[in-house]
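Look over this one:
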Amino acid sequence: MLLRAEFLAIVLVMVYVGAVMVLFLFVVMMLDINLERIRQGFWSYLPVGALVGVLVVVEMIMVLGRPYFGVENMPSPSDFPNGYSNTKELGRLIYTDYVYPFELASIVLLVAMVAAVALTLRRRDGIKKVDPTYQIAVKRNDRVRIVSMRAEKD
């Protein structure tokens, strides 16, 4: 946002939020979590967790308090030529200079998604399932029955 690349900033936030959400979803799907066992040691680890949390907050304050994170280093609109679009420039770079890494990253993500689904797929007994060949072979008369009824008078 500070470099006036609003589109890139929004896309990065959306992609990383989606990636973290999918990661948590797969972790929850793959682990058989026993909550009672997890809650047993909560109070004994609370002081250590609080200390780590305070250290992270102090580090964030130290890093973000530095002068190079300020607005004074942000480029002004006069630094860019007329008609400059950061979205157009980003698209040009992705689909020209970085097309192969972009395609490679998409293939890696696709393989990871298929592998995660394959790892979490479990065969269970007693689950209702539908046979697709039965669905395709059904005729109209097997599903719909037209009943003729006389109208009632009040």
Summary: The radius of gyration is 28 Å. The chain has one domain: 6-75+84-143.
